[in-house]
Specification:
Blueprint (H helix, E strand, L loop, with lengths): L7 H28 L12 H11 L15 E3 L5 E3 L7 E7 L4 H17 L4 E7 L7 H11 L5 E3 L4 H5 L7 E5 L5 E6 L4 H8 L4
Parallel strand pairs: 3-4, 4-5
Antiparallel strand pairs: 1-2, 3-6, 6-7
Helix pairs in contact: 3-6
Pfam family, one: AhpC-TSA
Protein name: Thioredoxin domain-containing protein
Keywords: Disulfide bond, Membrane, Transmembrane, Transmembrane helix
């Protein structure tokens, strides 16, 4: 059987077509995956890293640990009505657990009152959760607050609900929350002016 062999120029033309086809495939393949590469975060850039961080912040796990979203709760206020922690989203919050019979708690309260007087309305709030279930009665809390002239919100944890949520063992214990309600720091023991001022200036 006779085989018709292509002329030399036909053979070269076939090789050229194959080469061009392979080049186009490689070019398109590279272009497709290059388009999917994340934008690197630079000066003022919005790369994958910043987007991922924002997404994690929105879906942060809830719990009483640094880096987690502070567990939400609602408690009656000493001044009347009820207060929900999440209502303060958008502000940085000093969430303090205390009792009127606690010596270190009584010691830190004037510092908190002074700080609140200076920072009130400036994007920082204090919520003082009284361990009412451990008090003699509510009157003891009212007398202590009145004598101290405290104007920050005092919440009454009458059934140990918030204390359980935050696993409070020692008082005073304070949680520092950022504007998104994420816990940025925890203090076990009394607060002082420096700790409060550092937080007020944007620190943990």
């Amino acid at each position: 059987m006779k085989i018709n062999r292509p002329f030399p120029f036909q053979k070269d033309f076939v090789f050229l077509l194959i080469f061009i086809s392979l080049f186009l495939v490689v070019f398109l393949f590279h272009g497709f995956f290059s388009a999917k590469e994340p934008v690197q975060k630079g000066d003022g850039g919005q790369g994958e890293e910043s987007v991922r961080t924002a997404a994690v912040g929105e879906a942060a796990e809830e719990g009483p640990e640094v880096g987690k979203r502070a567990p939400d709760f609602q408690l009656p206020a000493l001044s009347g009505g009820r207060i929900r922690l999440s209502d303060y989203r958008g502000k940085r919050v000093v969430l303090n657990f205390w009792a009127s019979w606690c010596g270190p708690c009584r010691k830190e309260m004037p510092e908190m009152a002074e700080f609140y007087g200076k920072r009130r309305g400036g994007g920082v709030e204090i919520l003082a959760v009284n361990m009412t279930f451990s008090e003699r009665n509510r009157l003891a809390v009212e007398e202590f607050a009145r004598e101290g002239g405290f104007t920050f919100p005092i919440l009454l944890d009458e059934k140990e609900a918030a204390a359980d949520l935050y696993r409070i063992i020692t008082i005073p214990t304070t949680y520092f929350l950022n504007e998104e309600g994420i816990i940025t720091g925890i203090r076990i023991g009394p607060l002082d002016k420096k700790i409060l001022e550092d937080f007020g200036e944007g620190g943990k």
